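Before relying on records like the one below, remember that each one covers exactly one chain. Contacts with other chains, cofactors or solvent are not represented anywhere in the record.
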Amino acid sequence: MGQRTNLLLQIEGRDGTRLNKVYHLQWGYRRYLPMAFIHLVSARYFKPDGQDIFRFCTGAMELDGLADLGNDWNGYDFNKLEDCQQVLMHCDNNNGAMVVIVTEDKSVFVYPHYRIGFLLGPEGLQEENEPPFSHWVTTDEYMRHQPRNKELRDDIFAHAFDTLATLSGAKHIAWRDNGSSS
């Protein structure tokens, strides 16, 4: 029941270690997942000196309704679409997912680097005749495929989100894979 989504978070430490987390969110469609990313990015300005990147990022994801699925997902590389697809096949999901990859910079004086991507779930692809999670989509495409409320301006939100993501230094996976950005 409900609009079920997932957030796949991959954190890569400066020493090469990696931690993957998968979160489930009931009613997480539309703006919730992008707002969770904005929360993570804005929290970096308040990160205590010396706090490890893994503890910091997972702490920033302690949001109301976002449930850590708790399995060991470290064998997957969320940079790869195929690995994301395999993980999502183990999740209760009908409205898609957001993938966030946080890479700690080699220098302690530089903020982490972010990559973000969206995948459409089965409900968003009913009219498209495509399998779920089959390709990366832009923020705008993700928003257009969510259950709609005519009063909400999802196109304006998608543009504002992409602007904030770009200003934070985030790279959008769909842009890279479609040749529009690096």
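Confidence is low (pLDDT under 50) at residues 178-182.
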